[in-house]
């Protein structure tokens, strides 16, 4: 089983969307039995809540149902997940801070590292902005998740 954890600040907008976009791609590739996919937030302010309703509304228009419940990332997540994917530079820095002994650096990535078409270097936080921000999040995630799946397939010699 290959485990992938998407991480943003609140775990109600970007990382639940990353989780849903990636899960759909994995299902379409017939690889769902090979993967454990989850998401978490740097902060626990929204713990126990479903995803942001604006994010949900934009996602469902593209066929992604956001079902995850927000939770904070834990040091144990760093030890147990194989790929830990941060949405922006602050998330990345915060994950590195949580990785006190720097034992898990090699499995902590930034989502945009896997972009193939888009030139963004972060997935921008849409929380305080307008509708276009949510669409932009999904555009970047669709591109980057495709690149991430290709990377994992290569790493693990998966065929689909
Ligand atoms: P996310 O968006 O990190 O993509 O889930 C945010 C959600 C909540 C807050 C900030 C960003 N907040 O400040 O509560």
Q: In total, how many beta strands?
A: 4
Overall geometry? globular
**Helical content (DSSP H or I, runs of 4+):** 40-55%
Average pLDDT reading: 97
Integer tally of domains: 1
Small molecules bound in the structure, each named once: 4-nitrophenyl phosphate
Q: Structural class, from helix and strand content? A: alpha/beta
Fraction of residues in β-strands:
5-15%
Helix segment tally: 5
Low-pLDDT stretches are: none
Instruction: Give the SSE string.
Output: EHEHHEHEH
- Main sheet makeup: 4 strands, parallel
The termini sit apart by 16 Å
* Name of the CATH superfamily: Response regulator
At the third CATH level, what is the topology name? Rossmann fold
Structure description:
It is a single chain. This protein is of the alpha/beta class. It has one domain (2-156): 3-Layer(aba) Sandwich (Rossmann fold). The chain has 5 helices and 4 strands; from the N terminus they run βαβααβαβα. The protein has helices at 14-28, 53-61, 75-80, 89-98, 131-156, and strands at 2-8, 35-41, 83-86, 108-110. It has a 4-stranded parallel sheet with strand order 2-1-3-4, sandwiched between helices. Helix 2 packs across helix 5 (131-156). The longest helix is centred in the last third of the chain and has 26 residues, at 131-156. The mean pLDDT is 97. The site of 4-nitrophenyl phosphate has 10 residues, from loops. 4-nitrophenyl phosphate binds at residues 8-14, 45, 125, 127.
